[in-house]
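Quick one: structure for this chain?
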Amino acid sequence: MKSSIISKNGVSYLLPFILITMCFALWGFANDITNPMVKAFSKIFRMSVSEGALVQVAFYGGYFAMAFPAAMFIRKYSYKAGVLLGLGLYAVGALAFFPAKVTGDYYPFLLAYFVMTCGLSFLETSCNPYILSMGSEETATRRLNLAQAFNPMGSLLGMYVAMNFIQNKLNPMDTAERAQLSPAEFEAIKDSDLSVLIAPYLTIGIVIMVMFLVIWLVRMPKNADQSHSIDFIPTLKRIFSKKKYKYGVIAQFFYVGAQIMCWTFVIQYGTRIFMEDYGMAEKAAEVLSQKYNIIAMIIFCASRFICTFALKYVNPGKLMATLSAVAIALILGVIFIDGIFGLYCLVGVSACMSLLFPTIYGIALTGMGEDAKFGAAGLIMAILGGSVLPPLQAAIIDCGTLFGMPAVNVSFVVPLISFIVIVLYGYSVRHEK
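Got it. Here's what it folds into:
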């Protein structure tokens, strides 16, 4: 990390930058331990893919519901207060997995996810603009890309934990076999599987509480020019009058949806390939598919650092449009190239996605000043795309076969459309710094 991009008016923001960057990793963990849970909950509760995808609805619905309340809270108090409240809600939601398990029902888990992501909404609404403020506007997009580079490290850990401490430890009985169980046998296996599933969430809840105490005790700088007035409607009119911001929110909606779809349904895509083409059992196919998901995240992480370096020399909008265009080509491969090479294309999409979220975010908020707090909330609300679009793809997957093709292949037309939207936004802002 170069101090030149994390200092302002001669004041170094190094320690706050490190602490806030750690929060990026913490919400990355939450995001990517959750994606494989769509398949896990579907199996544990004997549900369809569409019902299991309610996990994503609850998870990303919390982002949507709390974004503007978070912005108003931060405007009234401070970035630090927003971070602390976010960590508190994150911890409460994670620890709520224990009472959810005691009930033995699906919906209390959805409530726990919702509370947890209300906390993540506070964190992202606070941390992203805070990072942008830790230096000059000229280096803001690079600075945010650098901080966001640590987000996939948390994501990698989340995927690793999901695979090794949840998926590998769940009862190996497949979905068809579970359907033949008596009610008593089903309840016994379900209770055992839920005990496995909640352990990592309880652990991260304790870690978050420790992080809460550290940030509470450390002195964090405030913006000297911070305004505490909340002119909600005039501010909304002002920020949404800017095309660069307004279309940035739309692009972010589709980007988050595309990211979640590519990382969630790689399990279904890979499982079908390994079961049909290689004769693997369902559980073994799921675990192997998750390994490909981890490879995708490693590629995503490496690409984030490479793209952050490239932004020193390449216009962000042009780079964003180029990577999105490559993603479109790869998604076409996912749809039309059946078998392992289609899976390779799906893994490759992650290299293209690495730049997109922080670059859309940074470009959309450039030059907004104090309005960035509410602007950030709009961009966090756009994470609703992760709640709206995956169930649409899941509904297509549940069809089984479409147009003579596996429905899971056809379903990737939804992320295809999403990347087309992002290409158009990248092209429209290609002259932005």
